[in-house]
Design a protein that fits this description.
homodimer; mainly alpha; Arc Repressor Mutant, subunit A; Four Helix Bundle (Hemerythrin (Met), subunit A); DNA-binding
DNA sequence: ATATTTTATTTGTCTGACATTTAAAAGTCT
DNA sequence: AGACTTTTAAATGTCAGACAAATAAAATAT
């Protein structure tokens, strides 16, 4: 592992990259201990604070974990699906908000991916997944629910659907798409009528998944996609109208 | 923004989290300048090195960028699709290798997601996407190609297919699934015969996308999924056989 | 008016020190 | 001998102060 002191990049960034490469290329394996900070400083010919900044960069990506005390140190971290989930969710969320991704684009992506999971979920869902879906449907039908709570339940329903596919890689990929949509969904005010429609579609989806009927699940998801988009259009139109009348 | 000096977590981790929350919740907006390191150290009642470690954590996640000099400092970074791509690819790749995700699981996820893109790609693909796909098909047919180069071309082909959907969110989500599969695909030795089959299926996919025929594209993708899995099975079987005979 | 130099500010890096945590090793008691 | 306690060494976490390097604004010179 070498670094170039004449490069324009920060030393700590170079060191972090060098160690990251070693991990990605398998030269450092899970749970292997890195040299101590003092030894790394020696190897790279930099000071300990610089090494520490590099290690913090890696820790922020869950690539290493550190432990204090004798026989402590920095260890190559086995990145868990949970770590990867949360990373993906924050990245996706910021990506959508900062790049002003349109509701339609995000919505299309989300439901396209979800439809990819539905046939597998119809095959493999367990009673647990069905129970979660049914429970969320009940919650969504309760009166007096805030829009935020309704949205959160919506996310939980769809995550159960996705998890039903029994493929952790799919669940991981979908986590970003589904959760990152939530802030956008929160902009919608759900009337009693629209909640009724959504609960109806959720019920059809749950029924189809329970009956292992992939085609029906897909059809209901398509309808849900369309309905979500028209719902957003009408909410936007209503707001525009309210703004116009207020300005006169 | 407050931190708890009695918490078990590192001060730098707490500070990073506090600033991250401010960004995610929109209290700090894109291109806004954070206070200087000295001011932050003052605010949080810690030393400058500690603040710096916190900032490096954020920089590692592309949440901020720093600039030296007068009127420099740390600025909230607009996370780009490119940033998000590369983060997702390394995370996905490590997730697969460290958690010993089976070839079948990763493969299933990848093709399920890709099939989700195909109908959209059939609708919206530009001549550019088609040209890329055709060019990669030609490359894949050339003799004397190493397995690695063949795999890389395979990835390029499928990325063009995905990008054809014209939905950057989908492209971003798929980048992880497609690229992270590459190390697993690299374990396969592609015989002349198997390359011929794959090129044939790729041609059918490109033809279908060109003809805006979503159903045919889907059918070809399903065949490709099945074929990839049987290919991997036969490679594994051949290796097992070789091991057995060598041991006798 | 333009070009150059100066200056102030800020990040990047280094040195050295002390605090805190932790597990192994040594010691003590029953 | 075995169980408990104390000591110790090694490592990360934190701090203070200093200097280097970059950079843009301000001041100066042409």
């Amino acid at each position: 592992m070498k670094i170039d002191p004449n490069s324009s990049a920060d030393l700590s960034a170079q060191i972090a990259q060098a160690i990251k490469n070693a991990i990605v290329e398998g030269r450092l394996i899970v749970d292997e201990r890195l040299p101590s900070e003092a030894e790394l400083a020696d190897q790279f010919q930099v000071s300990r604070p610089t090494v520490r900044e590099a290690l913090k960069r890696l820790a922020a990506q869950s690539l290493i974990r550190t432990q204090r005390g004798a026989f402590g140190g920095a260890f190559v971290n086995k990145i868990s699906f949970k770590d990867a989930y949360s990373q993906q969710i924050t990245t996706s969320t910021l990506l959508l908000s900062m790049n002003a991704v349109s509701f339609d684009t995000a919505c299309e992506a989300r439901y396209a991916l979800e439809r990819a999971c539905a046939p597998l979920s119809a095959q493999r869902r367990t009673p647990d997944h069905l129970a979660t879906m049914r429970a969320e449907i009940v919650r969504q039908g309760q009166p007096g629910l805030s829009d935020e709570t309704f949205c959160a339940s919506d996310v939980a329903f769809h995550r159960a659907l996705v998890d039903g596919a029994g493929n952790p890689v799919l669940s991981y990929q979908l986590a970003g798409a589904v959760e990152a949509m939530q802030p956008l969904m929160n902009m919608i005010t759900f009337t009693a009528r629209s909640r009724e429609v959504i609960v109806g579609l959720h019920t059809r989806i749950a029924d189809a998944i329970e009956a292992r009927d992939a085609a029906s699940a897909d059809a209901a998801l398509v309808e849900l996609t369309t309905y979500t988009m028209t719902l957003k259009d009408s909410v936007m139109a209503a707001r525009a109208a309210a703004r116009n009348s207020a300005h006169r």
